[in-house]
Amino acid sequence: MSVQGFKGQALSWQSKNGIIELVLRRGPCNELGSLSLDELEKFAAALSHLQDEAHALIIHSELKAGFCAGADLRELYQRSQGMEKSEAVRGVRDFLERIHHVLNTVDAAPLTTIAAVHGVTFGGGFEFALACDLIIADKTARFCFPELRLGLIPGFGGIPRLKRDVGNAVVRDLLLTGRSFNATKAQQIGLVSQVVAEGEAPRAARATAAQVGKFDRQTAMTAKKFIKPIPLDELRHEIDIFCQLFPRPAVQTALKKFVESKDAQPYLP
Amino acid sequence: METSEKTLEEILSLAAAHFKVPREKLSPDDDFFKTLGIDSLQTLDLLTRLESHFHVELPDYELQGVSDFRTLAGKIQARL
Question: Chain A residues with CB inside 8 Å of B75's CB?
């Protein structure tokens, strides 16, 4: 593995001309499970070296289905089968601690970070995008926090980061209804900075990355640190709440229903 | 204001064009999941395209259980 470039099963990255591109590439829609997490941790470790030579990070997906469908619920369900409750909760907490470390690293990176999203940007995928400084969406992008259908809350930092960016009424709407919404709506509520034509989000992100590279980096990073505090206490609290909710039988039932569902809208209860 | 029939026709035309199905193969009372052969991701894609075309928001839960074009047109018409 070279620090400058990496091609794994779940993602790849390359650093060129001051711009790092992290590309998600695990079918069907970049579900975040143990394989993705292993490779994301490699990226987070490499980022400390990459950031010396770069001013921007772009994250996008090469899959037609979308940016990321969130946590790998099939893996989550299968892993928890046959485990004692306490063991299952320990496993979940360990996974959440690790993914939080990765997303906190991206969130605080001394670079301008841009999520260039399309299609399904659900749950953990939405949370991944929220860790970035800017979200650029193409017209096919669709966002959703469907976790309540499972008897859970978002576990990858979603609520604290959403609260950082939009009003509490919007957070309640998205969280309590679990409805999905399109890129235009996401721009109206202030989450998305640009909406572009289908397939154009990476190109628009590269143009934006080139623009931000014109400014003095130290000034830009001072501004970022000033305007984008990381809600660490709330993020810790979120992990605790998730782990309290997870062992309930209702969650296991909902996970089973989702895993076995053939519905056209399996993210709905 | 669009009439229900016009809304219905626009949905049928949009679905036919996007999913590359001859328009004449689609009928208002068809089960669009079966006729178009679409999965959950394509359903979301269709929802996004309908919202964009009609300039409306369609909460997923309002469409839960809706599977024919005519009922879908009624849901959209109610938001125009």
Answer: none
Check whether A216 has a pLDDT greater than 60: yes
User: Is the Cβ pair A140, B63 closer than 8 Å?
Assistant: no
Q: pLDDT-based confidence at B50, cuts 50/70/90? A: very high
Distance, C-alpha A125 to centroid of its chain: 4
pLDDT confidence of A268, banded at 50, 70, 90? low
B8 vs B6: CA distance, rounded Å: 5
CATH code that applies to domain A5-204+217-260? 3.90.226.10
Q: Rounded mean pLDDT of chain A?
A: 93
Evaluate whether B28 touches B7 at the Cβ level (below 8 Å): no
Which region, left, alpha or beta, applies to residue A150 given φ > 0 means left and ψ of -120 to 50 means alpha?
Answer: alpha
DSSP A161: H
Whole domain around residue B71: which residue ranges? Answer: 4-77
pTM here?
0.93
Put simply, the answer to whether B45 touches A119 (Cβ < 8 Å) is yes
Handedness of CA A135, B64, B46, A71 (dihedral sign): positive
In this complex, the residue of B38, B44, B59 whose CB is nearest that of residue A120 is B44
User: Which backbone phi and psi does A114 adopt, to 5 degrees?
Assistant: -130, 125
pLDDT level of residue A265 (50, 70, 90 thresholds): low
Place of tokens 């894609």: B45
Beta carbons of A264 and B38 less than 8 Å apart: yes
The DSSP secondary-structure symbol of A55 reads S
pLDDT tens per residue across span A192-205:
999 999 999 999 99
Does ipTM come in above 0.90?
no
Q: Report the number of distinct structural domains present in chain B.
A: 1
Say which DSSP state B29 is in.
T
Q: What are the distances in angstroms from CA B57 to CA A133, A186, A229, B6?
A: 26, 12, 32, 19
As a whole number, mean pLDDT of residues A83-90 equals 89
